[in-house]
Amino acid sequence: MFQSFFSRQLARPSGLFGRLFTARWLDKANVGMNTLTLESLDLAGNDRLLEVGFGGGYLLQQVLVRGRCQQVAGLDVSPDMVAHVGRRLRRYVVAGKARVALGDIESMPFADDEFSALCSVNTLYFWRDPARALAECRRVLQSAGRLVLCFNSKHDMEQWPGHVHGFSLYELAEVERLIAAAGFGDITTRTAHDPVQGEFYCVRAVAT
Ligand SMILES: C[S@@+](CC[C@H](N)C(=O)[O-])C[C@H]1O[C@@H](n2cnc3c(N)ncnc32)[C@H](O)[C@@H]1O
């Protein structure tokens, strides 16, 4: 019972529990994955970054605190996370450096070529149609823009009982093939492991 509740929280954190527990838990549990994602993005001062599925907002805040980007945007399907992170990043939003929006990766409220870098950590499991989601990523990225996707290995996720409640799991080769089919090249993957999250992949690709 709690397992399915918590799995649904991970897919879309909501309510008081989402704000007070899930958002904080995500920020702590996923530090290793978010850190490797940031490294792989290799951001520069003129970058315009979009993070899809920001959860508690840890990665967005790290980028803003380090002042590594010209513009930072976030998109999430959870209205409660959009409100929570909007408050957390208020000073950057007011200064025009950051914006957070409600929406789904499969139909993003952004213009073609709007971003130079796009990342998404721990969201792939919840996409209804990965080919469509990746086509949207390609559309909003400018040519030569970087995409970084970070997700747990299928093998490790299968050891966790909560995965049966709404998680779709993929082999690395399948994800790399979908990324290539969506119009990306130069695909490189780093495999890492941490005590909280187990084995995970950080796949970086360049929009062709
Ligand atoms: C497991 S949390 C990961 C949060 C954060 N990236 C991290 O690693 O700590 C998944 C987040 O993605 C969001 N999400 C799930 N499906 C999504 C979709 N189709 N489009 C956009 N965001 C989505 C959820 O609302 C949630 O905030």
Could you write a compact summary of the structure shown?
The protein has helices at 2-11, 15-29, 31-41, 58-66, 79-88, 90-94, 130-140, 154-158, 172-181; strands at residues 48-52, 71-76, 98-102, 115-121, 141-152, 184-194, 198-207.
Instruction: Tell me about the largest β-sheet.
Output: 7 strands, mixed
Total domain modules: 1
The small-molecule ligands in this entry are: S-adenosylmethionine
CATH homologous superfamily identity = Vaccinia Virus protein VP39
Question: How large is the count of helical segments?
Answer: 9
Secondary-structure element order, N to C: HHHEHEHHEEHEHHEE
Low-confidence stretches: none
CATH architecture label: 3-Layer(aba) Sandwich
CATH names the topology as Rossmann fold
* Spatial shape: globular
CATH class: Alpha Beta
Average predicted confidence as pLDDT: 96
> What value does the Rg take, in angstroms?
16 Å
Spatial strand arrangement across the major sheet: 3-2-1-4-5-7-6
Q: Please report the total strand number as a whole number.
A: 7
How much helix is in the residues?
40-55%
Give structural notes.
- The chain has one domain: Rossmann fold (3-Layer(aba) Sandwich).
- 41% of the residues lie in helices and 27% in strands.
- It has nine helices and seven strands.
- Strands 3-2-1-4-5-7-6 form a seven-stranded mixed beta sheet, sandwiched between helices.
- Strand 1 (48-52), helix 4 and strand 2 form a beta-alpha-beta unit.
- The radius of gyration is 16 Å and the shape is globular.
- The model has no long low-confidence stretch (mean pLDDT 96).
- Residues 10-13, 26, 30, 33-34, 52-55, 58, 75-78, 81, 104-105, 121-123, 126-127 line the site of S-adenosylmethionine.
